[in-house]
Write a structure and sequence with these properties.
The protein is of the alpha/beta class. 38% of the residues lie in helices and 11% in strands. It is built from eight helices and seven strands; from the N terminus they run ααβαβαβαβαααβββ. The strands form three sheets. It has a three-stranded parallel sheet, with helices on one face. Strands 1-5 form a two-stranded antiparallel ribbon. The chain has a two-stranded antiparallel ribbon with strand order 6-7. α1 runs antiparallel to α3. It is globular, with a radius of gyration of 19 Å. The chain starts with a helix and ends with a strand.
Length: 225
């Protein structure tokens, strides 16, 4: 999409309000790809705070003075957030049809076939921020359809970060990478959440320590009473 359209979309979303409503005040609103606790976070960086008038101005500049209609694909977990986004974007002139897909169709769209319009998706982030490359790098392992617009400047920073081995220098490059993605309105981050896991002492599993996708549940076991 036209960069002005991507920027308008971000201006139309009130992230702090969504974090309060959907996360009951427990979620952290995101203005960039990395949350406050992760390497790459740029303190105070908020390139597009909530501003409906600015969103409408950018849409008009992009050739959509009356707005336009698009679609958001989401899964059932994202229904409430998708409904809220539909309202926010609609106020700016971006009319949204919310497509709640079953698990198979949703996963196929996000990870294989691609989608039209917008996609509401979650992406994990490891403590060392390596998931920035897994999800948004030059050769992503997840969003593989090429849907994201990635400039040569952004990809060059990804390559530099992957080949910088001093921690301090590496984190500095990550910050530049996150800022570049923000300047380009590559994605529209909304909020960051935590996922707690409760487990009894007699249950043995590595689930809390690793990503669910690589969880080998057949290795789990419980002690006999």
């Amino acid at each position: 999409a036209d960069r002005r359209v991507r920027e308008a979309l971000e201006y139309a979303i009130d992230r702090p309000a969504l974090a309060r409503m959907i996360g009951h005040g427990k979620y952290e609103p995101l203005t960039q790809l990395a949350g406050k606790a992760f390497p790459g976070h740029v303190p105070g960086y908020d390139p597009r705070p909530y501003n409906v008038a600015k969103a409408r101005q950018l849409l008009a500049e992009a050739g959509y003075p009356e707005g336009f209609r698009t679609k958001i694909i989401a899964n059932e977990i994202g229904r409430d957030l998708g409904t809220a986004l539909k309202s926010y974007l609609g106020a700016a002139g971006i009319l949204v049809d919310l497509d709640i897909a079953d698990t198979a169709r949703y996963m196929a769209a996000i990870f294989a076939d691609g989608w039209s319009g917008l996609a509401l998706a979650a992406s994990g982030i490891n403590p060392d921020a390596t998931d920035l490359f897994v999800h948004y790098g030059p050769d992503p392992m997840t969003y593989r359809t090429g849907t994201f617009v990635k400039s040569e400047e952004y990809l060059a920073l990804c390559d530099e970060a992957l080949h910088t081995y001093d921690d301090a220098e590496h984190y500095s490059v990550l910050k530049r990478m996150v800022r570049q993605a923000g300047e380009e309105a590559m994605v529209a981050p909304i909020f960051i959440t935590s996922m707690p896991t409760a487990m009894q002492s007699y249950v043995h599993s590595d689930y809390p320590m690793i990503h669910i996708v690589v969880w080998d549940l057949y290795n789990d076991w419980m002690e006999a009473n």
